[in-house]
Amino acid sequence: MQGITILVRNTGKDFFYLKGDGMMDQRIIRKPELMQKVGLSDSTIWRMEKKGDFPKRLQIGGNAVGWLSDEIDRWLASKAEQRKR
Predict the structure, then answer these.
(1) Which CATH number does the domain 4-84 belong to among 1.10.150, 1.10.540, 1.20.1240, 1.10.1660?
(2) For the whole prediction, is pTM greater than 0.85?
């Protein structure tokens, strides 16, 4: 990932920021926060992700993964928009 820096911030919660050339800082959220935010189980998130119905996880390093907060927010907004139809 040339030109991208992962900044670790830890104030009691694990979360990360991506910072790169020409891109805004993007918060990366870990699985416990993701599950709380979207209200889905781990296995449901995995199945939806594999089908392309949920934002893909980002490999942070080793076994650590996370999701871009902006992508999750857009996904939730699209679900709210579908409800209006």
Answers:
(1) 1.10.1660
(2) no
